Each structure stands twice: as C-alpha cells, then as structure tokens.
C-alpha cells in the first residue's frame, strides 16, 4: 500500500489519548503528564478517550489517584498546585471506537487545534479501527500518532500493521513508543560509545571476544498470566528491548545531529544481524507458571530465552552476541559484559577468558560502568589477579521514560522512536524462532534458567551472572 506523503507538522497543540481509563494510563501516562506539568513542559489540553461510561470528573479522579499513588511509590510529595493545573487541562470523550459518533465528539473536542497528537494506549488489534475513525472524521489531518508496542507478533503482522498506519499517516508522523529507549541508562550506552575516543580503537572483532547481555527479573507474571501467555519472552523483551541494546552497542556512529541518522545506522546494523537459527536457542519456563490464572494448563510459552546472535559486518564478523532474558531469576538486573581477547602472547602468567580484560555496563536497577583489568599480585612472582574499576552514575532528578518520550512526540522529535523499517528488520532476526518448535524446558524459580542454557555460550567460560552491587564506601 502506498504511504502517505509527508507534510511538515508543527509542535502538537493538543494531546488525545485513547485508553484513558486503562492500566497503562494509570501507571505511566498520568504520572508522566504530572511531571511534565511540574517542569513547565506541558502547555496543551489533554483529551482522554475511552469506552467506560465515565465523565470528565471521573477521569480527573482517576488521574488524581494515579499521581498520588506514583508519588507514594517514589516516596515523594504531590504538589497540589501542579496536580490542579494538570486536572484543569483534562477533557474526556466517552464512546465505542467503532461508533462514528465517538470520533465526532473527538473532532469537536479538538476543534481549535492545528496539529493534534493521538496516543493509542490500546491493544494493537484496535489500531486499525481507531486510525480509520480518525481519518473519516478529519481528526488525522496535520496530526501525529503514537502507538504502543508490541508492533505486531511477527514479521508478517508487523508489515500489515505498518501498512494500516501508512494508509492514514506518513511515516514521519508515526511514533512507535518503546519506553526502554527512553531510559537514561540505555541512552548512556549511545553516549558512552561515541563520546569517548578510547573505546573506538578496540570496539571490533580484533579485540572483542564476545558480548553477553542479560535481562533478569526476579518476579513472575502473577496478575498478567493471560497477557503473557499470548506473548512470551521473545516477543515481550528480546525482539525489542534486547535487540535495541545490541544496536546501540554495535552500530557505527550516526552522522552528527542529522535527523534520521541514528535510525539509519540502527537499520543498517539490524539488517546485518543473521536470522537466529532454532539450533541457537534455548527456551525455558519456570516451575509453577502453568498454575497461574490466565495461563493454559499445557502452555509451552517461554518465560526464559537464551540465544546466540551474529552480525555480518566487518566490525563484528565472527563475534558472538549471547543474549538471555527471563523471569523468576535470582535478581532483577540488566547487564552488558564485553569480554576482550587475551594478549596475543603470554609475557607472564597465561591469561584466558574470563581472566582477560572486560567492560561491564549495568543498566538497572542502578547505572554502573566498570572495566576489568589485571594487576600484579603481591609477592615475588610475576603473576596477576583481576581488579575492577567502577564508576556509578547517580542522577538526582531523572526524567521517566514516558515523560521524555511524550515530550519528544509533542515536539516531533523521533530520534528515540522506532521506524517501520527498524521494526520489521528486528522481527526478521527472530522470525524463525517464534514458532515454538524448540522445546520449553522447566527451571526452578530463583535459578538462572534451564541448565541447557550453558550450551549457548559456545566455547566461552559460561554466563556472567549479574550480582548485587557492593555498597559505596563511607
């Protein structure tokens, strides 16, 4: 289907978000809007849309509860004046997304706006219905649209979803939001790569032995069983979050601040990733998963995955990227470890991985940058021991991912959003392993997944398991 022709759109002057009474709005959107109001970054009306039989006062009560709960979770105080300013901006349209009257109500609510921003915080199955309703009612003119992941379930459905969006909106007016790209620690990877010249000479196959990325969660899927059993770990976090981290680690430098240059380098890198073979994958499911409400009693959906990925470029040819993610693991942490090759000749004691140099980047729950070196042991013998140089990056007032990304979408800055081509290229990497043909292996809660995952790190010295960081010295 032919894409819409792009027309420059000014800064958005009204925000319309569908799914205003839902869980995502309560947990993420209202707190982000409050923070933007507090920071003088929200100067436009906000129209909530849902099919709940509510009125605007009920929406405002919901927003108030959301902000208070979020502040309580962060051990913060709510600024009543800021909250009142946010609530005063809220409007509400109630109605069925299949009813033309609903979109007539939206059109009336945004009548004075020149460039609306429509945020679809709804299931992807409703995207087509809503964008078509926006088009028929005239609400899509000079507008942008934000869509939540997942962007499809596989390569074919991602292409179909993009075609649906492109029938109404040009690509530069489509913002595919992945909150992971809005995290400060993830952005720090990109900055670290290209703001420090010391890394570039060794950031290639000549010096790097392998790369390991672990996204561990110590909790399960209680309360989300029905959702998770239709998704699984590969679709939930690997196809998007972990491949985004690989892209930031492995991409070449974007062309300065040129618009679209970062996306172009990510796309080149994603297209160079070799499609993952089922032989290079281990899937696991934690014991007790099938007993959770909403989960099929014979479910073969994975709650853990480990795989080996290769990138066919001159910089990375032959370097294995080991990725794993799972639930009910020993701790909650996301960590990257880059193992360097040992010296070409042993001058003193023999050095082999994992005793060679490395870089370690912890992305959550705290940001830690570390470099592993070797120093001489005390004594007469010229033998070494490993040490780690650690830098902790503390940010006192960090923006939440949704606060950052909503602000970017309002301004029309799409650097932290995924393009259609990048989404499809990422699905192409994992499309062959989405069939569930690989057996799902049970593992005990509190462990690092099935024992068979050890075979993925082919010839390496095992997985680098994240550990709690030591406390800072007094």
Polypeptide structure, described:
This protein is of the alpha/beta class. It folds into two domains: about 15-175, Rossmann fold (3-Layer(aba) Sandwich), CATH 3.40.50; about 180-400 and about 420-455, Dihydrodipicolinate Reductase, domain 2 (2-Layer Sandwich). It contains twelve helices and 15 strands. The protein has a nine-stranded mixed β-sheet with strand order 14-13-12-11-7-10-9-8-15, with helices on one face. A hairpin with a 3-residue loop joins β12 and β13. α9 (about 230-250) crosses α12 (about 420-430). The longest helix is centred in the middle third of the chain and has 19 residues, at about 230-250. It is globular, with a radius of gyration of 24 Å. The N and C termini lie far apart (about 65 Å). The mean pLDDT is about 90.
Keywords:
single chain, 474 residues, alpha/beta, Rossmann fold, Dihydrodipicolinate Reductase, domain 2
Short synopsis of the structure:
With 474 residues, the chain is an alpha/beta fold. The chain is built from 12 helices and 15 strands.
**H and E order:** EHEHHEHEHEHEHEHHHEEEEEEEHHE
Looking at the structure, the CATH topology of the largest domain is Dihydrodipicolinate Reductase, domain 2
With strands numbered from the N-terminus, the spatial order across the biggest sheet is: 14-13-12-11-7-10-9-8-15
Give the count of helical stretches: 12
Rg, alpha carbons: 24 Å
